[in-house]
Amino acid sequence: MDIPKDKAGIEAAVKEILVSKFDCDPEQLTPEVNLFMDLQLDSIDAIDLVVDLQRQTGKQVNPEDFKQIRTLQDLVDAIYKLLNS
User: Fold this and answer.
1) Nearest CA to 16 among 67, 44, 53?
2) pLDDT tens digits for range 40-70
3) How many domains does the chain have?
4) Domain that residue 19 falls in
């Protein structure tokens, strides 16, 4: 699956990953949901998520940029920036 370059497409693709790989409840996946506190993702999950995103986008994710991500919206914005820079 290739991730679209628009924010709505990115958000849908990220939600699909969170539901399928991390068993997240789709009802919880609002833009302001905290990936770590609300969804209980840990550092290993974060690495798995980055690896999956790198594979799907074909782009290298900067670990420093990823450290700043807390919410679903942060993640969507970071991927948007990555795909459109």
Assistant:
1) 53
2) 999 899 889 888 888 888 888 777 778 889 9
3) 1
4) 7-83
Query: Which residue, chain included where needed, has tokens 């948007």?
Result: 80
C-alpha angle 78-46-82 in degrees, rounded to nearest 5: 20
Task: Report the CATH number that the domain containing residue 77 is assigned in CATH.
Answer: 1.10.1200.10
Other beta carbons within 10 Å of 18 = 23
Question: pTM (2 decimals)?
Answer: 0.89
Residue 20 confidence (pLDDT): 94
**SS3 letters for the chain?**
CCCCCCHHHHHHHHHHHHHHHHCCCHHHCCCCCECCCCCCCCHHHHHHHHHHHHHHHCCCCCHHHHHCCCEHHHHHHHHHHHHCC
